[in-house]
Amino acid sequence: MSREQTPTPHIAAEYDDIARTVLVCGDPLRAKFIAEKYLDNARCYSEIRGMLGFTGIYKGKRVSVQGHGMGIPSIGIYSYELFNCYDVEKIIRVGTCGAYTTDVQLGDVLFAMGACTDSNFADKYKFPGTYAPIADFGLLRGAVEAAERLDIPYRVGNILSSDSFYDDPRQIEWARAGVMGVEMEASGLYLNAAMSGRKALTILSVTDHLATGERMSVEGRQTGLDQMIRIALEIV
Ligand code: HPA
Questions:
Q1: Whole-model pTM?
Q2: Which of 120, 122, 188, 218 has the most neighbouring CB atoms within 10 Å?
Q3: Is the sign of the CA dihedral 66, 107, 182, 199 positive or negative?
């Protein structure tokens, strides 16, 4: 069934071009960077809308890396097509976030166990209440174990997937409930995984602090990125 739905409107790949585990990130050029730096025999399978996707080999395992753009509607499209048309089993998002709580610092690696949201993306399902988007426990446990093996410090907890990047100072109120930080995609990814019966995890590197106004340097961003990718690739 799925095979006949490929290529999709947004991914030019044939069904077999994409691995069962896909790392995703907002920036398509970061997907290219990950594929070229970390994978063997990486091959680009799609360039539609500049949203590059690659498949290669990491420690003998086939893995793909796909850009997903910004915001829940955009990751919603890519994760839907990967799960439902390409039968992808696991999607691991590696992204950046802003911090809310003062115990979180620039460069920290966060595992989003849960993702609050101010988005109405789940509304289409008309649940009789509010859905609580969560990471897959096996992927989360694998990521924690990998971080400990690699000696990379990490935090596990709740984050916010917001629909707005600018001009909403009220968002920091989420810190009162221990929400560690903010990005723009995890809750949509987790909902799509749940509705597709598949697995997802979001790993984040803190690039700015909303309480203190601090911002990460370019080199610092690179280190955080490297740590996240190494953890993600351990659990493919
Ligand atoms: N807001 C939303 N998404 C982000 C941020 C932010 O401050 N920083 C990195 N991704």
A1: 0.97
A2: 188
A3: positive
| Cα separation, 187 vs 184, whole angstroms | 8
* H or E stretch covering 111: strand 109-117
Query: 87 in ligand 1 pocket by Cβ < 6 Å?
Result: no
226 is an active site residue: no
Q: Is the CB of 184 under 6 A from ligand 1?
A: yes
Ligand 1 atom nearest to 95, measured from its CA = 10
